[in-house]
Amino acid sequence: MDTKEIILDVKKLNTSFISDKKEVKIVKDVSFQLKRGTALAVVGESGCGKSVTMNSIMRFTGQNARVKAESIQYNALRDGKIQEYHMEKFKSNNCAEMRALRGPDMSMVFQDPMSSLNPVYKVGDQVAEGLIQHTGMSKKDARAKVLDMFKKLGIPDPESRIDCYPHQFSGGMKQRVVIAIAMICNPELIICDEPTTALDVTIQAQIMELLKGLQVNEGKSIILITHNMGLVAEMADEVCVMYMGRVVEFGTLEDIFDHPSHPYTKALLRSVPVLGLADGQKLETIPGITPNPAELKGGCEFAGRCPLCEERCKAKDIPTYEVSAGHRVRCLQYDSFKEVD
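RESULT FIELD:
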């Protein structure tokens, strides 16, 4: 596929953490592509490696993390030409090349706005900081641009709110400020880590409408990390399903919702509440518990909870198969299909 069509291409990303002098693998051989101007949802249970995967790409991991990848290629589109960045070659998390990309090219909306905002600085100054740092813009010009961004994001009375502190904002308004910080340098790629956590459903809908508008109207590429399949149905063009640090299924929204292939994906969809559920009818749950990553010995990580598990599922590494164009699944049920890297 033409690199103009792909903004982010991740191949065989692995992340582990050193704990008690032992190395525990959390993200394992994760590969995916994000098409320019589209939205990709990364879904799975809490602890499946979604956030660690994106923090590894953004190089927000701690000192005890070990991040390796065959390739993490970011394709910036500038004046109609592609400029390639091979991020796996960057020497450190905070090297000059990575700092130059964060903000102007790619940014992240974090899960908890309270931990993302400094309580002792005015919100306007926090939004303007990245703009001043990356562009050298004067404080006066930066303030004017922050006001424009607040208006665009629907923050009421921006002229007075720009000088408020985070505690003076509601949860929904704090999340808009966090989005403003991510958007102020006009990046092509926005990674959103559970952007509607702890917000009521009305505010959730407003935030998701805002993000969808950025994608549709301004051509932004968005990665949405979530376990809410309802948000996935509203937002995503493609879906990446993760379990215990691995991509178990990847496909278009229609592939995943209409033709789910991996037993874990099917179980996730069966556990989602739907309109018309009969009185007294219970939602299905996924049996068993998530295994301890340090105790996994190989084979399929879902084997202990899978109703279709066979002995061979536990005995060998599981390849990924292409069940239709662009629809990939990591399950031995599909071993008659073409194996893909």
